[in-house]
Amino acid sequence: METYKFKTNINCGNCVKAVTPHLNKLEGVQEWKVDTENPDKVLEVKADSANAETIKNTVQKAGFEAEQI
Q1: Which end of the chain is more exposed for a tag (fewer CB within 10 A), N or C?
Q2: Which residue intervals of the chain are DSSP H helices?
Q3: CA-CA distance, 38 to 29, in Å (whole number)?
Q4: Range of the domain at 12
């Protein structure tokens, strides 16, 4: 299993709620979380088959920015 981290603009509970259905239905993602307390709003994704590019595109489709760190 790989762990990917992204700097995002997901900065509140409503933002997390908006991205939740997109990340939850992404195949290969086991778990994910957003640290909204971190100034970089770090999204951490644990995945066994989804890659960083797919995760980034999914976050962008939900209307947010994601840059791998």
Answers
A1: N
A2: 13-24, 52-61
A3: 22
A4: 2-68
